[in-house]
Every structure is written in C-alpha cells, then in structure tokens.
Design goal:
309 residues; alpha/beta; 5-stranded mixed sheet; 5 strands; 31% helix; globular
Amino acid sequence: MTAVAGSPLRAGMAAVVALLVVGLFPATAGAQTPQTSPAAQGVAPTVSDPIVVTARPLPERRKTLGWFGAISGYPDGDEPLSRMTGALCIAGVGLPTDLLLGVADRIMQNAQRLGIALGGEKCRPNVVILFVGNGAQQVRWLSDHRPGIFGNMQASEVSAMERDAGPVHAWNLTAITSRDGDQIFQMGDSLPTLHIPSASRINLPIKSQIAAAVILIDRRAVNGKTIGQLGDYATMRALAVVRPRKVDGVSTILSLFDAGGSAPEALTAFDWGYLRGLYSGQGDRRPYAQYVSMAQFVEQEIMTKATKP
C-alpha cells in the first residue's frame, strides 16, 4: 500500500504521466473542418460587427435543491450532512505508485480549496483507495473477516454492496459530535451521553463528521480514465456522503463510471457547488439550509466559468 502524507507530492505529477491511467489514451476526436476567418478571406472586420457572448443559463433553484437531496439520500432534517473535520491523510493500493500519487495529489488539491487540513508525514490514513480485481468479492471478504471496517453501517447496507456488480464500492464511516466537537461518551454499561452546552432554534445541537472513507474501484473500470477524473471522483466519494444516481439535467463527476455515458473531465459546477456549500459555515445547519448554500455556490461556479475568457 502506498501511504500518502498530507503535503503536496510531486508537483505536476498528473501532467508528467499525461493525465492517463494504465497507458490508455482516449479516442481521438473526429477531424473538424477548418474555419477561415474574415481577415484570411480578405474581408476586413468592421468596428460595428457585434460580438455576442451568451452565458449559460442558471438552473432553476427548485430543481437544484432536488438534485442535492437525490444524491444525499434525502436525510432527516434533524441531522446535518456529514463532512470531514480531521486532517486528510490518503493511502492507496492496486495501481503503480506514480499513478496513486497523482490521484492523491488531485484529492489534496481539491481539499485545500475547501479549507480541509492536510495531515503531515507519517499521518494515519483516513481515506483508503483500493484498486481491486472485483469489488463485490472484496466487500464479501471484508464482511466475513474485517466487519469493523464498515463502522455503524446496517447489515442490509453491507449486503446490498455485496450484491452490487458495479465497478465502485464506497462507504464513509461517520460519527455524531456536539456542536462544539465533543464526542459521545460512555462509561461501563451506562447509556451513551453527549454533552450539549446550549440549544438553538436555528442551528442543530450536533454535527456529523466523516471519520474515514473507503473506496474500492475495479481496475478494469479505470481504462481510459484520466488521473484527474479518478481523483475528482474519489474527492466526491471521500469528502461527502453521497449516493451516485442518474439525475436528469445534471453534469457531475459522479457519472464517471456510468455505462454508455460521457463523463465530465473534472469536477463540475454542480460538484463544486455541492462541496463548497457542504464545507461552508459551522456544519451544524439543517440539510435544507445546506442545500440552499450549495445552490448559491453552484450559481456562483456557473457565473465564474461564464465570465472566464
């Protein structure tokens, strides 16, 4: 296993390996007919020629909020969405070391933009990415021999992953803390208790933290995927508790392994809006309030891209 510390590794690693995994290049795009400019045709452009820039329309807010609920699994309103609060530390296995380092670098760059701290050298991994021969079989083996790796997941959820023939099997280990970060305390046979110093009608008295994330990806599925795509996909699965599902009208890196679809090259405006909204504020807001923040960031991301030259 290649353990990756939280400091940036090998600047530009993705560029060095041409952003490609296992040496497979994407299909060459079809040739386009060259367009001849007016100047090349001997026609001088006039000052009065209008230049029209059409911005991409913003999605309807109601639909955007529905998208967020769909990939979050429509959680209860009395528990905030989970996010990583500890320092990020990544470990990986199953691909050549240079490729694993490139994927980890990409995740850490994304984490830094979100304000997530990075672990130092010899940190204890809390994100593990395994490139395996068959993820479903690996889940079954872990269920039989290392059941603790699934944390507080329900047995039915683990069984569902065992039956899932898809190329990705991922889960997050989460824990509830007080708004101030105090953990649940239990002594002997007494009931678990959580100290909450004050109550609020606006914010929730608790937070939900991602203590660890495990991502299993079948090696056969990475053919033709870039390091950037793999790192961005792992970013969404590790730093947020999401349930990838096809949602009409949404461009998201979570579609990377969908059959017969064309996935984006990187995190989209929807993805960045989701993550930025999730990691903004104190983390004790109700899901709907977090969705509103996410929608605002999605709109901001779209407008920023529209104004770039």
